[in-house]
């Protein structure tokens, strides 16, 4: 019956104003007056431009600098002497400490909430003694299902802000996933969040750090009457209350968790309960609550939103992109929170995938004009010293760019002034930067790679018409064997084997290849203690993509000769050559790049030389360890599936990221920003 419910009335696409903190849900004039806000439209624009005004209870109008601070938000006429100091390592002033545990009468709902939250935390005490890989796999899977699909994608961006539209069956499925996070039913969760945006960091905000860090983090959760007293009845979720499915979830909320607990116990006994219910629920609790607390206390304020919201990178990593909170408060209805390419936003990547499949429509994003109106400010951290600065806004279009010299891969040079000036007018998203070829090569192309503008200049086949050496035969045989192992994956599947594969994927892929081999050793983007550098490099060695000296040398040659005839793996020789077949012709690289001479910084270190000489022994040892731990399924998943998966996502950077995607910067090569490669 729920699926037959009539759809809610269509919502008009939200047009982001320059400041919409106090009117995010089309709040009436009467409601605006109740929070003592006076629009700057009531004042002469020439003299009071770019100012924000608050109407205090004593009817006085206070003008506040465009760079608004916690201490600038008045709570009452005598609040100057009523603060409780600043929160540690921040400039947020606690105006009133609220303790929800003492001095009030507890109702049955609050007692039930506290009991459940305490029980979930107590379950976590049993986590070490009940650990097994299957239980960890279940916890990780439910973390993604309830956290990413349920809370951040459904409850937050879809239901609370209507940032995009989904087919009703899919909207209901994701909302059901969110209900299993044990953070409340959709109607309750969405109502609280809309009140938060309506009264953000004022006395009516359900969870603001101006009443203490721990209040904003979790203790507000234990006083259900507090929100009603502050904000009134939840009349801001009429679009959900009229749908029978959401009323059904509200009325049967607790039964779904009982059913999930019974299912987990039937699947794996107490370990699945401890990890699938306890550890997973507590983890999702705290990463959600960190958005309410940490993202209003620590981080950077890029946009002039008039509240305490911050962009906090580490919360963004944990909370699937929700940590770019200042971006979110600037453009509440935006489906994308990580507005910059480097701001990881897993929820946005999921929405993009749904959009590509035709399932997500009417996806809302801020336009450049709307960003201009929000006046991006050029400061890093919130500080009272900025209150004395000029009110003239500063728009940062492009920072000075430093690039790696193509022929001196470890020596950095500054881009010329002419090139730096050209960055002020970056190319449009759909602009294609084409590589210039000699005129006599105009007719030598083999056509374009599908759905791209990349022309194949010569198809190179490494399999036929050449003499294979023993090393190339060994490489090809090893790759074929690993791919054949993957055929056995369905028949050998076990949750603990899957958990091992996921753990090794992060250890060898994230810590080993991307962090160590690529950013640390190849480009020297940062420094770490030697013991930690060696540990991460060892993790990368276990990815079976070559020892550090070989991997780094190839990558530096790639940057030195990128997308030229000397590049070890450019798509100008064909997609599959750039993706993987270049690996099977070691003599080709030696002919192109000659003697390896670009890794002397590694070759003089005994540790890297030892890894080079004992490379295969480490993989034999890892295979023996996995077999001892879990027999053949651990070999199939921990060696076969994990390595093949990591192979192809690494190779996609060489192939897909030079063929498909957007070119934001004029680098003179085929490199692209590719969101799905970044996600994997």
From TrEMBL:
Presence of the UniProt keyword DNA damage in the record: no
Keywords: Fatty acid biosynthesis, Fatty acid metabolism, Iron, Lipid biosynthesis, Lipid metabolism, Membrane, Oxidoreductase, Transmembrane, Transmembrane helix
Keyword field contains Oxidoreductase: yes
Chief location: membrane
MF term (GO), any: oxidoreductase activity, acting on paired donors, with oxidation of a pair of donors resulting in the reduction of molecular oxygen to two molecules of water
GO cellular component, one term: endoplasmic reticulum membrane
Any one biological process term the GO annotation gives: very long-chain fatty acid biosynthetic process
Cell location: Membrane
Domain of life: Eukaryota
Pathway participation: Lipid metabolism
Domain Fatty acid desaturase: 134-353
Family annotation (PANTHER family): ACYL-COA DESATURASE (PTHR11351), DESATURASE 1, ISOFORM A-RELATED (PTHR11351:SF31)
Entry's free-text remark on domains: The histidine box domains are involved in binding the catalytic metal ions.
The name this protein goes by in its record: Fatty acid desaturase domain-containing protein
Organism: Salvia splendens (Scarlet sage)
Taxonomic lineage: Eukaryota, Viridiplantae, Streptophyta, Embryophyta, Tracheophyta
């Amino acid at each position: 019956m729920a699926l037959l419910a009539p759809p809610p009335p269509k919502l008009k696409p939200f047009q982001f104003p320059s400041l919409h903190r106090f009117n995010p849900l089309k709040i009436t004039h009467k409601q605006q007056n109740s929070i003592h806000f006076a629009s700057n439209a009531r004042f002469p624009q020439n003299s009071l431009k770019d100012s924000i005004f608050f109407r205090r209870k004593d009817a006085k109008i206070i003008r506040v600098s465009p760079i608004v601070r916690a201490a600038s938000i008045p709570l009452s006429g005598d609040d100057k002497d009523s603060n409780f100091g600043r929160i540690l390592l921040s400039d947020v002033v606690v105006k009133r400490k609220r303790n929800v545990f003492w001095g009030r009468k507890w109702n049955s709902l609050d007692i039930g909430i506290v009991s459940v939250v305490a029980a979930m935390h107590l379950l976590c005490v049993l986590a070490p003694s009940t650990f097994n890989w299957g239980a960890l796999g279940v916890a990780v899977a439910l973390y993604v299902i309830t956290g990413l699909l349920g809370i951040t994608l459904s409850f937050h961006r879809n239901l609370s802000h209507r940032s995009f539209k989904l087919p009703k069956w899919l909207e209901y499925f994701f909302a059901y996933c969110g209900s299993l996070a044990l953070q409340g039913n959709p109607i309750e969760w969405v109502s609280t969040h809309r009140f938060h945006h309506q009264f953000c960091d004022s006395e009516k905000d359900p969870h603001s750090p101006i009443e203490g860090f721990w209040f904003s983090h979790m203790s507000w959760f234990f006083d259900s009457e507090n929100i009603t007293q502050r904000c009134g009845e939840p009349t801001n979720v009429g679009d959900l209350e009229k749908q029978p499915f959401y009323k059904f979830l509200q009325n049967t909320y607790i039964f779904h968790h009982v059913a999930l607990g019974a299912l987990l116990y039937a699947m794996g006994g107490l370990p699945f309960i401890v990890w699938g219910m306890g550890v997973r629920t507590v983890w999702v609790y705290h990463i959600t609550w960190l958005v309410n607390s940490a993202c209003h206390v620590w981080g950077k304020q890029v946009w002039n939103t008039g509240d305490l919201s911050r962009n906090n990178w580490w919360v963004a990593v944990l909370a699937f992109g929700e940590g770019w909170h200042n971006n979110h408060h600037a453009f509440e209805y935006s489906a994308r929170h990580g507005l910059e390419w480097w701001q990881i936003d897993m929820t946005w990547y999921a929405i993009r995938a749904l959009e590509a499949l035709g399932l997500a429509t009417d996806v809302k994003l801020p336009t450049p004009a709307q960003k201009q109106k929000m006046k991006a400010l050029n400061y890093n951290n919130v500080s009272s010293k900025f209150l004395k600065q000029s009110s003239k806004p500063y728009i940062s279009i492009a920072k000075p760019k430093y690039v790696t010299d193509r022929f001196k891969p470890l020596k950095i040079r500054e881009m010329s002034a002419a090139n730096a000036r050209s960055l002020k007018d970056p190319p449009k998203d759909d602009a294609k930067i084409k590589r210039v070829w000699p005129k006599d090569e105009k007719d030598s192309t083999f056509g374009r790679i599908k759905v791209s503008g990349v022309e194949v200049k010569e198809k190179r086949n490494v399999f036929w018409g050449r003499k294979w050496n023993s090393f190339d035969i060994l490489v090809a045989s090893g790759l074929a064997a690993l791919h054949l192992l993957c055929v056995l994956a369905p028949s050998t599947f076990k949750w603990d084997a899957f958990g091992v594969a996921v753990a090794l994927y992060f250890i060898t892929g994230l810590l080993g290849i991307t962090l160590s081999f690529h950013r640390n050793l190849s480009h020297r983007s940062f420094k770490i203690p030697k013991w930690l550098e060696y540990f991460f490099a060892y993790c990368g060695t276990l990815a079976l993509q070559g020892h550090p000296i070989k991997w780094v040398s190839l990558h530096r040659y790639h940057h030195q000769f990128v997308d030229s005839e000397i590049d070890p793996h450019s798509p100008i020789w064909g997609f599959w050559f750039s993706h993987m077949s270049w690996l099977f012709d070691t003599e080709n690289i030696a002919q192109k790049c000659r003697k390896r001479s670009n890794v002397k910084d590694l070759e003089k270190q005994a540790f890297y030389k030892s890894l080079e000489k004992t490379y295969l022994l480490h993989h034999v040892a890892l295979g023996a360890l996995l077999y001892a731990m879990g027999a053949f399924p651990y070999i199939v998943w921990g060696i076969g599936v994990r390595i093949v998966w990591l192979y192809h996502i690494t190779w996609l950077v060489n192939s897909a990221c030079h063929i498909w995607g957007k070119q934001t910067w004029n680098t003179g090569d085929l490199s692209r920003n590719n969101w799905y490669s970044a996600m994997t």
